[in-house]
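Look over this record as teaching material.
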Amino acid sequence: MKGFFIQAMEKVDIKNFTLEGLETFLLGLGKEKYRAKQIFKWLYQRGATSFDDMTNLSKEFRRELSLKSRITSLVPEKIEISRDGTKKYLFMLEDGSSIESVLIPEEDRATLCVSTQVGCAMGCRFCLTGTFNLKRNLSCSEIVNQICAFQGTDRITNIVLMGMGEPLANLDNVIPALKIMTCPDGFQISTRRVTVSTSGLVPEIEKLGSAITVNLAVSLNATTDQQRDQLMPINRTYPIAKLIAACRNFPLPNRRMITIEYVLVRGINDSFEDAKRLVKLLKGIPVKVNLIRFNEFEGCDFKTPEQDSIDRFHSYLLEKNLTVITRASRGADISAACGQLRARMEKSDIH
């Protein structure tokens, strides 16, 4: 039994292939490359979990595929559903690590927030995931399987790589996953509906823009380097001036905008002066600003801002003709903020 398990683990995980990669794999088996589109549709549009599901392929072909490769999937270890419809999945990976995905339904869309790493190395002080440290990158299949897990039960219109981890620190796996998401034979999600978030890895922002067309969200969260150094250690490597320059140079199709994420923390970055500086920083860049109330968690001294501060900040940005949204808190009753469910589960395991 042990030998069989090792043999199975050595098989190629077929969900790590882009369409072009799968074509190359099939050619190596002496098969026609057009078969890759058939397999892709079974995997990402019909939800196949085994090669036996692929009934338009011959039995011999399916047998050969099963000898050389495998189809992985993620089954949630725990599911929590909020009163507002927000749904959080905790997934256990093959090595025993855990990650989270969150589905946020709205009237005209349903956004799935996907993880790209186990933990995170960025160390942002307002983020609970940063307290876990980085264990490893997720593979392409582990990224796309988070989407597969919601298919069949939930409508997904938008994908945001804004869960656990820094997506741009895992570009080798993130870019293939993005290609699968947007592939007409894959998940068929429009590039307009796929967003990659970053804490500010400047060289990787350029690499992303060169590799694929998707939306970019930048976690800015401050208007001076002194503030941002306090909140986000990455700023010491890529300070605000370099990050803003990368945003200006990011290739955007017509009428698209970069999303600026700004977590408001009481007494740190929520003043009227901060709002003024933010307007100056973003001048001339096609952006929309997401204002986010800091979500307090155990072990962090930061506080949620007063509503008056949020309203004043929001109003000033509007007066200066910026597109701005104050993001409503979702899933508060189910620990939907990034890392909360994992932290709670680990704490219960300890006790």
In short: The chain has two domains: 2-70, 76-350. Residues 24 and 33 are 7 Å apart (CA to CA). The two ends are 34 Å apart (CA to CA).
